[in-house]
Amino acid sequence: xxxxxxxxxxxxxxxxxxHVASPSYHVEQFLADPxxxxxxxxxxxxxxxxxxGLRGVHxxxxxxxxxxxxxxxxxxxxxxDFSRPAVDQARSMADRLGLAMDFHVADVxxxxxxxxxxxxxxxxxxxxxxxxxxxxxxxxxxxAGLLKPGGRLFIREGHPMVWALSAGxxxxxxxxxxxxxxxxxxxxxxGTYVETEVEFSTTVTxxxxxxxxxxxxxxxxxxxxxxxxxxxxxxxxxxxPGLMTEDxxxxxxxxxxxxxxxxxxxLQAHKPAQ
Length: 274
Description:
GO terms for molecular function: methyltransferase activity. The protein is an alpha/beta fold and 274 residues long.
């Protein structure tokens, strides 16, 4: 396999069963508690506002826990992901919960062709999505194409500074590009970001970083109006193992001097009404 999508899809397809079984995704809690929301969406709620009755699409939705959470807040949700096993799991969970949602298997760059243009009140993208895409400008054009006039983009993502770092023995080390590059950052790692005893056979992934200015500029050049950027000192995963501590809400911060590092950001923009 030479296409980055094939390489990454094989990796994500294999991760799905381990993620479904992991306590980190709380699948059983979703099934047992009708009010349960994912930790990511709970964090987003103060900035997300009221989505009741709105038609939303969650791009790169994986197994659908955040998508289901948005539906539980009253949104009419669609999910899209390039991994068929992930989408199958998302559909199964929505069906078991009695939620009327639709899920589609497609590459994010094909979302407008698959889902329809100007069809959504909001586009939602969660943590760890943009790093799998080589072209942030193309992604922003897809978002703009999906939104109705007046619709908005909501994304919380890992900060590009965090993606550029690796955990050193005492302090983080700057090892990877901050800006988007033509060549992918190629990883060959056996694990995943949840605790599991599964040994994976497809371990190679291709990833890219996208600087904050690149992302904001891409959104503006796609015709959206930039509304806000909030930087957070926490992330919903242990981004720098050995250097971070988890709080009671599933967020991880630097153990020492957490105010020294922006770990994630929330970006919001909207499509002009005219």
